[in-house]
Amino acid sequence: MLDVIYLIVITMTKNTTPLLSNLPIKELTSETDFLNILDKGTLIKDFLIGSQGNLKDIKMYALYGDWGSGKSSLMKYLEKELRGEFNTFFFEAWEFEKDENLAMSLLEFIAYRSKDAEEDLYQDILKYGGRILRGLAKSIKIDFKPVGVNLAPLVDELTQAEELSFYEAMKQFKTEFRRLEDYITRGEKPKYNIVFIDDLDRCEPEQVLNLMSAIKLFFTYGEKTLFFCGIDKQAVEAAVKTKYRDVVKSSEYLEKIFDISFTMPKHKDVQKLINHYFEETVYNYKAGKFSNPINQMVHSFFDALEIKNPRKIKKVLNKYQILREFVKIKASDQYLTPNIDMKNEQTANIFETILVLYLITLHEFYIEEFDNFLNFDKIKAVVSKIEGSKSTVSVEINNAIGRNYSETALNTIDFRQTSEMNKFNICLFPTNVTGVQENALGMRGSNNITVDGVKIDYLFYKLINNSDPEILLEEASNMSMHSIKELIKNLL
Q1: CATH number of 37-263
Q2: CA-CA distance, 378 to 400, in Å (whole number)?
Q3: Disulfide engineering: 441 pairs with which of 286, 322, 422, 424, CB 3.0-4.6 Å?
Q4: Where are the domains of the chain?
Q5: What is the pLDDT of residue 88?
Q6: What is the distance of C-alpha 378 from the center of its chain?
């Protein structure tokens, strides 16, 4: 199977839909702005340029956003757009996470970027910086009382170990950091610096808290440098709660660290991202015509399954594109392949397209649900526990399980027969059902079952069960649901 994937890669043509990387977008333009973040980027850029005169008072900025929300792409865009107005630095914290002290790594990073400075300046900034940062991770304690910051544990430890007092080291660090700022901004260079700090949500929580505390306490001694951090707010709040429990409120912690914060736009609409993979094609069938084009139906699929994270969607669609290339390669070999949308004029089957997307999603993010798909022993065990298991509907479910359609060619299923629809629907039945009523397996029967928590298998069952059965399997292939699952499992 690895040979097949390799063949797919080397045979991709210029006409192939390119896979989208999970790396930050290097050149964010209206064409590559799949997450609609350019407007937010422009707003932040204009604000920062206009706020240069306030740098002495406002130095800490946060960009809040969930994992996969596009923080890195937006920060890369800002770094590029602000060159000329600022001396820009981009510190990818995750690359330095193995270091014992992220704060020291940041200082070394800034100093190294300015390594053409006088040797004594380079050495002094590291000397005094190391002096006050070395014991920070294990000694510092944030106190949210009016007195501000309690440095006593750090002072005691370092003063005992060094001849130079802690406060003398802080004074020298302040002097050397400002000397470094002056050197970076010398001559015709921009008069202010901005340090972007990314990938914090990929670091250990303790490291993140120590780095942010160090920046707030020591790096803001400067007068020409601001720090702009990409933050997964929920992750940091969880870390604060773990470290400080109820002594410090997580929201107050972030408010005390950052002077100004921005929030990534909510991705209520990922249609532009989906349009990269699916065109606005409306399928015409013998039984009728879908009113919505395929790109909108794919959007409805992710929406129905409550999957809104762009990075997750991108990963699923990349795998779907690989499967498209596999179908292209195997089509001439009379190989059994699903009739999925190929982004061409060929009429595809809606259910197989959606089923493939669903199985890829399960395989990537919900492996237990993937294993349970078409697991009739699991479904039977669940149904047998339901009160009234001898009722007509329960007997009907057990009969459907006994004559399941998991290995039946999809193009042979006839929804005009109630028994056929029942057997088809039992293949998609959720595995956490707690109650069933009459017509639980019929058209729109999802309204007649109760479940223990709304999980993705129930959402998918509800989506398919409420679709038009007349054209759901129009233009279906001779593959079965089981064979499609095995294809996803072995190929992707």
Answers
A1: 3.40.50.300
A2: 14
A3: 422
A4: 37-263, 268-492
A5: 94
A6: 31
